From TrEMBL, chains A, B:
Species of the source: Pseudoduganella albidiflava
Pfam families: Peptidase_S51
Entries under Gene3D superfamilies matching the protein: 3.40.50.880
Swiss-Prot/TrEMBL keywords: Carboxypeptidase, Hydrolase, Protease, Serine protease
Protein family: Belongs to the peptidase S51 family.
Top-rank lineage group of the source organism: Bacteria
Reaction(s) catalysed (UniProt annotation): [L-4-(L-arginin-2-N-yl)aspartate](n) + H2O = [L-4-(L-arginin-2-N-yl)aspartate](n-1) + L-4-(L-arginin-2-N-yl)aspartate
Name the UniProt record assigns to this protein: Cyanophycinase
PANTHER family for this protein: CYANOPHYCINASE (PTHR36175:SF1)
Annotated function: Exopeptidase that catalyzes the hydrolytic cleavage of multi-L-arginyl-poly-L-aspartic acid (cyanophycin; a water-insoluble reserve polymer) into aspartate-arginine dipeptides.
EC number per UniProt: 3.4.15.6
Molecular function via GO: carboxypeptidase activity; peptidyl-dipeptidase activity; serine-type peptidase activity
InterPro entries attached to this UniProt entry: Class_I_gatase-like (IPR029062), Peptidase_S51 (IPR005320), Peptidase_S51_cyanophycinase (IPR011811)
Biological process annotations from GO: proteolysis
Length: 296, 296
């Protein structure tokens, strides 16, 4: 059994399509953040109806990266997700990647099960790297963006929330963000839930989150933060499907290569070349992202 | 010769495609803002290479609305735009609509000519309603969004500015905004020009601007304000084509039906049902939009 790579686990929140332009760059970082290619990796495919098809490109990419200890875990039912042997396969992993599919399927199957608990324990006790891409990214939040669309305007009721895995709190995560033009979908949610921060991650792009330290954007695109805590909105007064008025939303766009440390945090080997402290407008957002959650 | 409809001219900034869902609603408002169907209307088609094709649907729509005094003015050269007789046709109009096409063509032909001056005089002296749609909308600003695109991220140099007509100052106007997903194009410009406010207008949507009074959004979509005056950005330090970091952009979305008065302004018949004063986050933006410019 290997020992933890560092003192604390980290998150890798991926916007989907992570092998397009930045060929394996994000997965190479996943291997590195997990402690290197000798570590134990698990692909968790429970979000998908086609687990083998979903897993294969990741298995091949990890093999090319020299990560030979790669297990694939799929659960088609809550009974399977409560199987202690299944949960142990997660709890003993150093790097876990939750693949895409449908985040509602994922949570309906694993939410609140022994496997869910094992994910938290791997991050907390084993200091694993927990990665999620596409549906797997959205599910990492406590309030999970479940479904919906809003093409041309923020609309009341256009998107729905579900209960996610809770690795980040007070943040709702959207993926394929710029490519699928999802800013209005995210704003629709923020209009009705202004205490949630919105985080949109582009395809082939990921956010590295080191607990208690800071964040880094890697890959081909960028990440978008939407902060509606101080906005003025009529969302409470309009009907479902109506466009909402939003005044005073804070918008932040961080391209790949950008990243920030929490005030007072020392630069970390996990966050390449990130040396600057978060400026005031995104300070609280990054505090929230990097907060260490207690095991529940 | 008719007398001015009201004490001051107004602007109607249209996001293009204004006869789709809100069939003639926006053009009906144009007629109303110009003083009614008995007034003199001019279609200015200088932005287009196909002026007759561009003018015809507007001529037909205005005829259906009972506006029978409709002249079409086209200039293919600066010499024509400096023809005093041509300029007089503009100066004597109560409602002027600058049609779509290419805003660079429009400004190359009429910018700084007698016709340009006549537009300002019609607004200022005759209290006309000046409408612009699509290219005609962008050209209404002093700093005109001339060209460019930025699909998935705000990028340095992705969009270019030109010298526009200057009916609004310190504001850059984009159109077909949500339908063509132009927020990154607008943010690209704001990143390099943070003293400009960004105004994005959706298709089939218009912003009524009454000088010294307030604004109203009409039509099918909404308008987006982007305010980067207090943002933190690396735009000055990166190369052309590189994605910019933007932290602390203020974003406001106003759907149709929304609108605000300047503090202390009395409700106006031109701005239907608009009775609320602009809240603090958009106060300065609306002050800028509604400012009466001197004749230059």
């Amino acid at each position: 059994m290997t020992t933890p790579a560092t003192e604390d686990g980290c998150l890798l929140i991926i916007g989907g399509d992570e092998q397009r332009n930045c060929r394996e760059r994000i997965l190479a970082r996943f291997v590195e953040l997990s402690g290197g290619k000798e570590r134990r990796f698990v692909l968790l495919t429970s979000a998908s109806e086609e687990p083998e098809k979903m897993a294969r490109p990741y298995q091949e990419a990890l093999a090319r990266l020299g990560a030979s200890h790669c297990d694939t875990v799929h659960t088609a039912s809550r009974a399977e997700a409560n199987d202690p042997a299944m949960a142990q396969r997660i709890a003993h992993a150093d790097g876990i990647l939750i693949t895409g599919g449908d985040q509602k399927r994922l949570m309906a199957t694993i939410g609140g099960t022994a496997l869910d608990q094992a994910l938290h324990e791997a991050l907390k006790r084993r200091c694993a790297c927990l990665a999620g891409t596409s549906a797997g990214a959205s599910a990492m939040a406590g309030h999970m963006l479940a479904s919906g669309s809003a093409d041309y305007a923020p609309e009341k009721g256009a998107a729905t929330l579900g209960a996610g895995l809770g690795f980040v709190q007070h943040i709702v995560i959207d993926q394929h963000f710029s490519q699928r033009h999802r800013i209005n979908r995210l704003l629709s949610l923020i209009a009705q839930n202004p205490y949630l921060y919105g985080l949109g991650i582009d395809e082939d792009t990921a956010l590295v989150v080191e607990r208690g330290v800071g964040i880094e954007v890697i890959g081909d695109g960028g990440v978008t933060f939407v902060d509606g805590r101080n906005m003025i909105t009529n969302a409470a007064d309009i009907g479902d499907g109506e466009p909402a008025e939003l005044i005073g939303v804070q918008l932040h766009v961080l391209p790949a290569g950008s990243g920030y440390l929490l005030p007072g945090a020392a630069p970390s080997a996990r966050l390449h070349r990130i040396t600057r402290e978060a400026p005031a407008p995104i300070h609280e957002f990054i505090c929230n992202l990097t907060k260490r959650n207690p095991l529940t």
